[in-house]
Amino acid sequence: MPEDQSRPTSPTVSAVRVVADQDRPVIEVTVASPIDVVWPHLRDPELIRRWHGWEDPSLDAEIDFIYRQHSEADDEAHVIRSKGWPEPGAEDLGDRFDVTAAGPEETVVRITRGPRGVNADWDAMYDDITEGWISFLAQLKFAVERHRGVDRRTVFRSWSGEPGPRIQDLWAADPAPPASGATWLDTDGQLGFVVDAYGPGLVVLADKPGPEPGTAVSSMAIVSTYGLGESEQAEVESAWAAWWSARHPEQPGD
């Protein structure tokens, strides 16, 4: 990203970390809360809704698919393993969640991705799913640390097509007001930052790299807000819709 005064300040909390090679990435985050608070946020669908993905009619079905139908949990060991996905009867080939106490008030949530090469569908989605888990763990940390017990509202925008500018660079050049604040997430493909006016809320911008440096073939924005009234939420939605459609008029992300 080019240097710009719009870029958020340095993080005051640990970012999501990718700590293993590309063959089987390990994604982890440290949450400043006890394990008995964090673990239910990976088991109770109502708590999972507060950080997984974004508001969508299919969200409940996605949560049920991932955390109920196709996983098994060990509540004593705080481990979740894929069950029958990506291949029936091959649990070792799926993703694994390990939740570990790092102290009385710190918990590490670690996702070990399943290996590539299981089947064509799995490989086609692999990188997108990895990036999705990076976004969602940042949202988990934010929900638990900053808004425990509070439901969120979200705004989601996405684009895909021929290679074009990265959403992070477009935002840096001309941010959507009042979207600026301290960095919460900073990886090669994603930027997340806190916006006080959203509750405070969290904005995550993600780009899938294109063939040339500085280009993307898809981009998305997830905006999580807390405690806003209906008119305030509508203003956030309107501001992001206008900002997005001005840059991607062919795919406004409605």
Automatic annotation (TrEMBL):
Family matches, as InterPro entries: START-like_dom_sf (IPR023393)
Superkingdom assignment: Bacteria
UniProt xrefs under Gene3D superfamilies: 3.30.530.20
Name by which UniProt lists this protein: SRPBCC domain-containing protein
Organism name: Microlunatus ginsengisoli
The organism's taxonomic lineage, starting at the top: Bacteria, Bacillati, Actinomycetota, Actinomycetes, Propionibacteriales
